[in-house]
Amino acid sequence: MEYLEGKILLIDKPLEWTSFDVVNKIRNKIKRTFNIKKIKVGHAGTLDPLATGLMIVCTGRETKNIDNYQGLEKEYIAKVRLGATTPSCDLETEPDELFSYQHVTEELIREKLSEFKGEILQTPPVYSAKKIDGERAYKMARKNIEVKMRQTLVTIHEIELVSVELPDFTIRVSCSKGTYIRSLAVDLGKALNSGAHLANLCRTRIGDFMLKDAISIKDFEEILDKA
């Protein structure tokens, strides 16, 4: 069976699904459809619940290559919202501080974006899957436990302005493994002498794998129903 031998699935992750939800759904569907007790299924890069877009899901023996896919360059379309910060750096939590953005112009945004190209240091969000002393940071944050995140070095290969409709502006970002676009949004807010958080995120590419070639979970289930 091809799923046991090893298969790469390009999945368009739905909004509000966790990456684990996607893997779990695919694993259970394969097991039920082909009446098998066990199959390895894993993904090559987490997407936050409020993000959508491309996920590489590997089955069977192909799961051995997950690390190779995780290391590929990734591309995102991100909507950054000025005027407020949130504890989660996105819309998962309510604003905790408000800022003025009346001074921000399209020209200023373009100027500041250029400063983020190349190698940069960024601090991962507290609400992230990073492990702190063996526990996921977001689990500690939700328990109101103080979490100190260490800065990491990441690479922004390309960053360009797509559109501006203040307080929002949309950017396209091509970056290395380990880059948090939520952290990038926060840092952009600071660079613009304001505050910001991520309002929308879609992953459009992983290496040479493209979102346009991905299928929905519903499409995957229908393919297996026909099998």
Index terms:
alpha+beta, Pseudouridine synthase, 2 domains, single chain, 7 helices, about 230 residues
What about the largest sheet?
9 strands, mixed
* Content of β-strand: 25-35%
The CATH architecture of the largest domain comes to 2-Layer Sandwich
Order of helices and strands: HEHEEHEEEHEEEHEEHEEH
Low-confidence parts: none
CATH superfamily of the largest domain: Pseudouridine synthase
Mean pLDDT: 94
| DSSP helix fraction | 25-40%
C-alpha Rg, in Å? 19 Å
How does this structure look, described?
By secondary structure, this protein is α+β, with helices and mostly antiparallel strands. It folds into 2 domains: 2-71 and 208-226, Pseudouridine synthase; 74-206, Pseudouridine synthase (2-Layer Sandwich), CATH 3.30.2350.10. Helices cover 27% and strands 33% of the residues. The chain is built from 7 helices and 13 strands. Strand 12 and strand 13 form a beta hairpin. Helix 2 (19-34) packs parallel to helix 7 (217-226). The model has no long low-confidence stretch (mean pLDDT 94).
Question: Short description, anyone?
Answer:
This protein is of the alpha+beta class.
Task: Spell out the blueprint of helices and strands.
Layout: H1 2-5, E1 7-13, H2 19-34, E2 41-43, E3 51-59, H3 66-70, E4 74-82, E5 84-85, E6 97-98, H4 106-114, E7 118-122, E8 131-132, E9 135-136, H5 137-142, E10 152-165, E11 168-175, H6 181-191, E12 196-206, E13 209-210, H7 217-226
Parallel strand pairs: 3-12
Antiparallel strand pairs: 1-3, 2-3, 4-11, 4-12, 5-6, 7-10, 8-9, 10-11, 12-13
